[in-house]
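The instructor's notes for this session suggest beginning with a concrete chain rather than abstract definitions. Hand out the sequence below and ask the class to guess, before any prediction is shown, which regions might be ordered.
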Amino acid sequence: MDPIIVSGWVDFLTRPTIEEDPLWGSWVRWMHLGSEDRPQNPQQIARWWANTVADLPTDRLPAEVKSILSEATPQDHPGIAAVFQKVVEATVVTEDGTVIQTPSVSQQLHSTVGPWFEPLLQAENAAPEELRAPVEQMVAALAKKDESMPPAAVMALGVQDGEVADLPIHIRGSHLRLAKEAVPRGALQITDHLVPPMQAEDGKSGRLELARWMADERHPLTSRVAVNRIWLELFGEALVSTPSNFGFSGDLPSHPELLDRLAHDFVADGWSTKKTIRRILKTSTWRQQVIEDPMAALIDPQNRLLWSQNRQRLRAEAVRDSVLAVSQGLDREMGGTLLTTKNRGYVTNDQSNNQARYDLPRRSIYLPVIRNAMYELFSAFDYNDPSAPISKRYSTVVAHQALFFLNSPMVLDAALAIANQVLELKLTEVDQVQEMHRRILCREATEAEVERAILFVNRVEESILTMPEEDRPGDPHQSAWQAFCQALLASSEFLYLD
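After discussion, reveal the predicted structure:
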C-alpha cells in the first residue's frame, strides 16, 4: 500500500468536522465505537448499518450515494470499508454521455483538505518507471512550446455602457431612499450662472460631458479643490481643512484670497500641477523651518497663520525609502513591478497565498499593495486603506512604530551597512560619530551628542563582552556601532521634517 495514500485517508477521517459529515460520519462513528458497544456478529453489524443509514440526512446526499448505502448489507469491518470503496468508485453519466465520478463526492475527495490532494501532487514520483519517462518528455515538450509562444498582446481595460436611463435622486446619498420621480441626467444647477450646464446626449452616458463641465476654467470648485490638495501635500495642512467638503458643513478657508489667487494661476498655467508646486516652493512661507514662538503659539495655536512650518512625519513610503537611501541600498531603477504574477493573475482572499515581494530594495512606489495583506511597514506607519478614499492621510504615534525600528530586518541591515561603511574609513571615534550624523540626520553632531554617542557605543560593547561567548555577535565593536546607527534611524529627528 502506498504510505502517502494511507496517510491522506487517515488525516481525512480523523479530522474533527468529518464526524458530522452526512457521508463519511457513519464510518468514523463505527471506528470510534468501543469494544463493548461495537456489534460483534454479522446480524448485529447488518442491523447497526441499517439503523445508521436510516438516520442519515438523505437530503444532503446524492441519489447515487443513497442507493449504494441503502442497498449494502455489510457483515464485518472490511465489508463496511467495501461500501465506502463502492461510493468512491461510483460514477454518473452526464447528458452528453460522459462518465464521471459522482460530483459531490469527487469535489470533497479532491479538495485541498481531501485525501487525494497530496497523492495527486506527488503522482509523478509514485508512477512506475515505464510511465515516468513519457510524462517527463511531455512536460519538456510543453515547456518548449511555452518558450516559443509570442508575448501576450498589450491590452487595456475598457468600459462598455449599459442601458442609459434617467434615475431618481438618492436622498442624502442613500440608495435605499430614492426620490419618487427620475430626473434628467446633468450636474448641479447651483453653478449654472457661472458654467454652462452640461448636456448629456440621448443614448450616451454623459461621462465626457461631465468631465468637460468639471474642467471648464469658469468652474468655481474644480481649480480650488485641486490647489487646496496641492497645498495640503506640501504643508501638511490645507487652506480648507476639510479638503473633501467645500460645502455648508465644511470649514471656511483660512486664507480665502490666497486660495482664489492660486486657483486663478493654476488655470492660467494650463492646469499645471508642476508649475503650481514650483510657485509655492519659491515662497518664504514654505521655506521657513519649524520654530518655537510662545507668543505666536498663544495667539494661533493651530498655526493657521503659518508663522512656522508644520512639523510633518515622513509617510510610510518615505520612511522605507529613507532607511534604504542613507545606507546606500536603495535601488533607483525606474519602472517595472515587484509582483510576480501576471496582470489579473493575482485574485485571492487567502493571505497565506500572498506572493508579493517586499524584500527587494526598489523604491516604495513600486511595492505591491495587497488590500487584505498589507505590508507590515505600511500598516505601522499609517498607509491609507486602499479600499476607501480619504481626504488626507493621518499621522499617528504608536508603540509598534518604535518596535518596527527595534526588530525590522530591513532597519538592522541598514544600520549594519552604515556602520561598516564608516568603520572602513578608519576615522577617529569623534569623526565616526560626525560621519554617521551627516549620513543619517544630514547635520553635524554637537559636542554633547558626540560625548553621549561615544559613551553609548562603549557601554554597548562592554555589555556584549559580558555575554556568554556562544551568544555574542561576531564583532562586538561593529555591533556597538550598528546599535548606534539603529538608534539614529529610530530617532524622531530622522522620522520628522522640521
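Then share the key points. The beta strands are 91-93, 99-101, 167-170, 178-183, 312-313, 496-497. The two ends are 72 Å apart (CA to CA).
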